[in-house]
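SAMPLE LOG
Freezer: B-3
Tube label: C17
Construct: single chain, 191 aa
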Amino acid sequence: EHDRFNARLMESEARYRALFENNSVVMLVVDPTTGDIRDANETAACYYGWSRQDLIRKNVTEINMMSPAEVVDSMLRFVSGERRNSQFRHRRADGSIRHVEVFSGSVKIDGHDLLYSIVHDITEKQQAMERLHLLQTAIEAAPSGIVIADALGRIEWINPAFTAITGYDLQAVAGHTSSILKSGRQGPAFY
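STRUCTURE (predicted):
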């Protein structure tokens, strides 16, 4: 019975080790009391650009762009369960800065309370959101009235200039077609 238990335990440890080692997402194990990176999978080493041995010798404050005090505060929130994920800026070996979302939680390994962290690069998403914000700002500031309608011509969005020109706000025109503006000065094809 003891031998079977040990065999199952070893099999379980091997299975979870393989999940960590062979995972295609960046995975780190961090000591929340010191910030030392205790373990990293090969995907993490490739992502950050350091060898696995060099990455394991680093402190998370060498990667995270926040101040050391903010990093400690964030880790404490992960440990307490107050926070499960958060967004950060991480530095890689080549000096590039990437926006990441980190999902983290407590795990006990060899009697130590550590944090496991799964890191997702969201740099492109962040850049797209910034471009979208700039585009929205430009459209809202345009001096011409701008209308966004669905495929059937029903109004979904208008900019402030449209309201200034026509006197109609979004609540008044949403769901209507442009015929709501029909003044009689244009032919049916125009509308």
